[in-house]
Amino acid sequence: MKFTMPKFSGGPNPEDYLSWALKVDKIYRVHNYDEAKKVAMASLEFEDYALNWWEQVQDLRVEQGLPQVCTWEEMKQVMRLRFVPQHYTRDLYQRLQTLKQGYKTVEEYYKEMELAMIRANVKESEEQTMARFLNGLNYQVKKITNFQPYKTIQELVHQATKAERQVQEDAKYSKFMSSNTRVTTPSASTLPRGPPPSGGPSSTRPPDPSSTRTSSSTPSFKPRETPNSFPSRDTKTSSIQCFTCKG
């Protein structure tokens, strides 16, 4: 069986070391190597900081008269002391106590909770795990999941995933209905037309010729005479007096 040993650079994230050690463990379970070869194969894939650090550890043990690290389990203990801080497990417990789904999907939330429990080596009953999982679910998902039947944590995760899809479909339907029932503001072209208000700018608009057209029975309009206007020829002039000669 062909395989490639994973590399390890000694980064500050404890998860990097834990993932690397787990991969190497899986390789060594398949291949029956002796302990000295296991240590040599693992250290061959060190790079950057991890490479220099491991060489220094071996040199210091020689200077102090201590035996070399010659077993895989001893190597993991030395590396864990260096790359996994003592408060790491305490931080995992605190994260488990406050872990919520938030913007994560149900599957992402469960995987994060499960991985934290594995890293912290949490041993609890399945009922406690299900209660922990339900407590961190979003309210809408938890409300639907509580009414679904389940007996194991896997069935609970599946029911929560189905409830999550239902919540998403309800949100899409509500958004669709609100967009269809939204009242639009009428435009100027759809407003009813009426006579312009008096005194406004539209009062100076020239009259429509059709509106000034009158029937034969309607009396014609006569302009009012002003004091300085001259009378027509048909009008009697006996009462008119000249201002100059009084005639």
Concise account of the structure shown:
The chain has helices spanning 14-30, 35-44, 49-63, 72-83, 88-98, 106-119, 126-136, 139-145, 153-180, 209-212.
For the sheet with most strands, the description reads: none
- Please state the average pLDDT score: 81
Uncertain spans = none
User: What is the structural class?
Assistant: mainly alpha
Q: What's the order of the H and E elements?
A: HHHHHHHHHH
Instruction: Bin the helical content.
Output: 40-55%
Q: From the alpha-carbon coordinates, what is the Rg to the nearest angstrom?
A: 47 Å
- Tally of helical segments: 10
Mass-distribution shape? elongated
Descriptive account of the structure:
The chain has 247 residues and is mostly helical. Among the domains are: 14-83; 102-179, no CATH class. It is 52% helix and 0% strand. The radius of gyration is 47 Å and the shape is elongated. The model has no long low-confidence stretch (mean pLDDT 81).
